[in-house]
Specification:
By secondary structure, the protein is α/β, with parallel strands linked by helices. The chain is built from six helices and 14 strands. The strands form four sheets. Strands 5-4-1-13-14 form a five-stranded mixed beta sheet. Strands 6-7-10-12-11 form a five-stranded mixed beta sheet, with no helix packed on it. It has a two-stranded antiparallel ribbon with strand order 2-3. The chain is globular, with a radius of gyration of 17 Å. It starts with a strand and ends in a 14-residue tail after the last strand. About 40% of the residues are buried. InterPro entries: Ap4A_hydrolase, Calcineurin-like_PHP, Metallo-depent_PP-like, MPP_PrpE-like, Ser/Thr-sp_prot-phosphatase. It comes from Virgibacillus natechei.
Length: about 250
């Protein structure tokens, strides 16, 4: 199995198109197909903050649900949008406001269509992906080795939000533990969630959220080649978003 795990897109549709081109995919009607049968895997946070979250939803839905040519796991932003669509009382901030603004500009029929597509995508997707044929586990914010195979609330929180400690730094941002330092497994753990300037390799883990929506790059990790492919972001650069693990 040959896969291309794609980092946090966050509504950056132009960069996603460019990344597919860089990876050798060909556009066929509404989706991208690789001539060698490679499978793209979206590791969550396809929406929020960026300019075109709804276009990304449509593309991922077509590739994953309609044509079965890609895989997807949710991120914390995906989970929050899902809860918003359920009618739960969520705070429309931290990026969700950009997706909601796009959504509210649609007419009622189109709102229902995009809502149904996104909810179907979420409900049909696993919390994280175990891909033994590729020697990898794909989880939005990572996963401890001892959690692999579990889907309880503790694991769900970790997979969506990372190794949270409950503490905050002086700027109010959550302080996270560095779980990857203790990973000793033989499978690759491919994750994102925390923006880094360059893909971060620790043991057999790699963080590929290179902060496209914050002006850096959109990256993919290719297996079995163990290679990174990336395209530069078209968004303004926001330096303070890359403070972790420097």
């Amino acid at each position: 199995m040959k896969i291309d795990v794609i980092g946090d897109v966050h509504g950056c549709i132009e960069e996603l198109h460019e990344l597919f081109d860089r990876l050798g995919y060909k556009q066929e009607n509404t989706i991208y197909i690789h001539p060698e049968g490679r499978i793209p895997v979206f590791l969550g946070d396809i929406t929020d903050r960026g300019p075109a979250s709804l276009q990304v939803i449509k593309l991922v839905y077509e590739m994953v649900i309609v044509h079965h040519k890609a895989k997807y796991v949710p991120g914390n932003h995906c989970n929050k949008l899902y809860r918003y669509f359920l009618g739960n009382n969520v705070h429309v901030r931290h990026g969700l406001e950009t997706t909601v603004a796009e959504y509210k500009r649609l007419d009622k029929q189109e709102q229902e269509r995009i809502k149904k597509k996104f909810m179907t995508l979420i409900e049909a997707s696993p919390l994280y992906l175990q891909l033994p044929e590729a020697g990898a586990v794909v989880a939005h914010a990572g996963i401890r080795e001892s959690y692999i195979g579990r889907t309880d609330n503790k694991v769900e929180t970790f997979v969506l939000y990372g190794d949270i400690t409950g503490k905050f730094d002086e700027d109010g941002r959550p302080i996270r533990g560095d779980w990857a330092q203790n990973y000793m497994g033989n499978q690759w753990i491919v994750y994102g969630h925390t923006p880094v300037i360059e893909p971060r390799f620790i043991n057999k883990t790699v963080n590929i959220d290179t902060g496209c929506v914050f002006g850096n790059a959109l990256s993919a990790f290719r297996l079995p080649e163990e290679k990174i492919a990336a395209v530069p972001s078209k968004q303004p650069f926001v330096d303070e978003k890359f403070s972790y693990f420097r």
